[in-house]
Write a structure and sequence with these properties.
Distance between the termini: 41 Å
Structural class: mainly alpha
Largest sheet: 2 strands, antiparallel
Shape: globular
Helix content: 25-40%
Number of helices: 4
Radius of gyration: 18 Å
């Protein structure tokens, strides 16, 4: 998927661009029909955009907010209330993992760019 604002490659089905933060137009998720049952979103852990277990990315996708906001709120709940860690572990166990979509593999560096420049 390509960002409508900065034209960079982002994960298919993303609500926001990871580079510029622009909201993306609604599109069909790459997770397939199992992701949405009966036209309703399912609360699942993200299989593509995860730092630890994919809980924050799954919640962000479900509530249609930026994942960074959810991660900051979760960190504040962990540091200030102390229950954020326990809640994260419970959701990590309870939420099913979203089916994987198409994985984007970055192309390797071109052999021309790795050669030294003659002076």
């Amino acid at each position: 998927m390509i960002c409508v604002n900065c034209q960079r490659r982002i994960t298919d089905g993303s609500n926001f661009c990871y580079n510029c933060g622009a909201k993306q137009p609604p599109s069909t998720h790459a997770f397939g029909a199992d992701y949405e049952a009966g036209g309703k979103k399912r609360l699942v852990r993200s299989s593509t955009d995860k730092k630890i277990g994919g809980v924050c990315a799954g919640l962000a996708d479900y509530f249609d907010v930026d994942v960074t906001i959810v991660r900051v709120c979760w960190l504040l709940a962990f540091l200030l209330g102390g229950t954020g860690g326990l809640a994260y572990v419970i959701l990590w166990i309870a939420l099913p993992l979203a089916p994987t979509g198409v994985v984007y593999v970055q192309p390797s560096a071109s052999p021309v760019a790795s050669q030294p420049i003659a002076r």
